[in-house]
Amino acid sequence: MSVKRRSLRRKYVSILSPILLLLVIFYGITYGPVPITLSETWTALFSDGNTFQKKIIVDIRLPRVLLGLLVGGCLAASGALLQGVMKNPLADPGIIGVSSGAGLAAIITMVLLPEFGYLLPLMAFTGALFTSLVIYLLAWDQGASPVKIILAGVAINALLGAIMNGIMVVYSDRVQSVLPWLSGGLTGKGWYHLEFMAPYATISLLASFLAIRPANLLLLGDYSAKLLGQRVEIQRFSLILLASLLAGAAVSVAGLVGFVGLVVPHIIRLLIGDDYAFLLPFSIVYGGILVVLADTIARSWFDPIELPVGILLACLGAPFFLFLLKKRRILS
Question: For the chain, which domains are there?
């Protein structure tokens, strides 16, 4: 892709992003089993009345939309960082085991320690961080190469999945409350969950902007980065740690939502290139847009049932990514 063409695409994406973001937020707030008009939305948001529409928007839809933006942004940022660190466009917090680590910690909390449910976000964080540390140590051999990290992550992912299944078999009487979480989604989420997640997600997302320069330098390769005076292993571990925090924040509230961290950064990379000064913020924005849009469709189009957004994203994301794999030859 020529420099001029890439610059033009970045300009178009920059103009389109806020428009799409506002449209998706409006769609998520107004569309559902109870349609709400533009005038009713304006009245509900900016009047002092206590109407039925205001209760729906303020108490149910608005916090869910905000949660969707944060969850999608965190997952997309995590995937973008991991893809740069691993030098692999297929890297993703779900594939290398980070999400499974957060998931196992969350399941232990929900099934074995339900009285500590208020610690769920912290436990998910802890699980993601511990898993990242284990993967990094297993891959270490006078340095941790991206290939070894991915292979160790795949093995850990399989092991954690087996442990999660084992817990659900042993405690089958408590599984019903966990199944929606395993499917991934924002069903029943409100301001309480947003207050839980927002501090972790906001800090992690802000910290991710400090990772733009190290991520760009790692794209040059370890040897070139070292020649430029970079401490490659420390930077790689720091970025993996940050990606784990981002994934843990999302998993703690939305469960095991897949494909956002895989598909969104890759599509943005195809459009505007590898520069993280553009790739990271656009991935965050479009990750949020994708989750809010998918969640609105999942809770509205299949009425009277509400489809978990994780299932919808998997059904849409897997074929789409296979199409990209075939047409774009992303591994070449």
Answer: 3-328 (1.10.3470.10)
* Beta-bridge partner residues of 140: 144
Which is nearest to 134 in space by CA: 156, 151, 154, 150? Answer: 156
Place of tokens 């610059």: 7
43 CB burial (10 A radius; 0-12, 13-18, 19+): middle
Instruction: Find residue 144's DSSP bridge partners.
Output: 140
CA 110 and chain centroid, separation: 21
Contact 66, 51 (CB under 8 A): no
Q: Per-residue pLDDT tens for 191-224?
A: 888 888 888 899 999 999 999 988 888 877 766 7
Which pLDDT tens digit goes with each residue over 152-189?
A: 888 888 899 899 889 888 888 777 777 777 778 888 88
Question: CA neighbours within 13 Å on the CB side: how many for 114?
Answer: 6
Distances (CA, A) of 28 to 1, 123, 269, 303: 35, 30, 27, 15
